Amino acid sequence: MSRPEHQGPPEYYYGVDEAQKYAVNSRIQHVQIEMSERALELLALPNDGEERFILDLGCGSGLSGAALEEAGHSWVGMDISESMLRLAADDDDSRDLSLADMGQGVPFKPGTFDGCISISALQWLCHSNRSWENPYKRLSRLFVTLFGALCRGARAVFQFYPESPEQIDMILNAATKAGFTGGLVVDYPNSSKAKKYYLCLMTAGLVSLPAAK
């Protein structure tokens, strides 16, 4: 079966029909929320009851944002699909949502966010949908601007579906050159169905990676 990112640009793939699947498919919702909760766990935010300000890249229909809200945090969502953002706004019209391509960078002031999560979106930057798109340059633009938008000491956690070891190397290289430390956390590595990749990035110091499940 062809991977979604091979079928065209994400803003077209995640059109009205695909957005509706997220609105009615309970299995999709369960999996997305479960991965969002795991990403939030890997952010390792201080357990002091204080609200944090989180960036959700590729926020889609707002399922990951709902997990952030449930944990008591505020967030800004950014996605390239207008149809998905419309679902997120329909669920709560007070949400702060931005229609933008993360491959063009994160358009926020330095030190804005206490953390960042991203669910099932990063792999789209590894594939070129247009002749002028360069995957490595798009990844680099994302990571350089994200590094600036995060508070020092903050983390970013990307759940993603790599297609090959070469894609993983390209992602890690771009993130490292942007200033991040960290690496991969692979949950359930011996399970073909449950295996999940999380890129856990840190903005300061050499911090040990969290343990995988």
Distance between the termini: 28 Å
Low-confidence stretches: none
- Indicate the structural class: alpha/beta
The chain-level mean pLDDT equals: 91
Write the layout of secondary structure elements.
Layout: H1 10-13, H2 16-24, H3 26-43, E1 53-57, H4 63-70, E2 74-79, H5 82-91, E3 96-99, E4 113-119, H6 135-149, E5 150-160, H7 165-177, E6 181-187, E7 196-202
Parallel strand pairs: 1-2, 1-4, 2-3, 4-5
Antiparallel strand pairs: 5-7, 6-7
Helix pairs in contact: 3-4, 6-7
Architecture overview:
With 213 residues, this protein is an alpha/beta fold. The protein contains seven helices and seven strands, in the order H-H-H-E-H-E-H-E-E-H-E-H-E-E. The protein has helices at 10-13, 16-24, 26-43, 63-70, 82-91, 135-149, 165-177; strands at 53-57, 74-79, 96-99, 113-119, 150-160, 181-187, 196-202. It has a seven-stranded mixed sheet with strand order 3-2-1-4-5-7-6, with helices on both faces. The longest helix is centred in the N-terminal third of the chain and has 18 residues, at 26-43. The radius of gyration is 16 Å and the shape is globular. The protein starts with 9 loop residues before the first helix and ends in an 11-residue tail after the last strand.
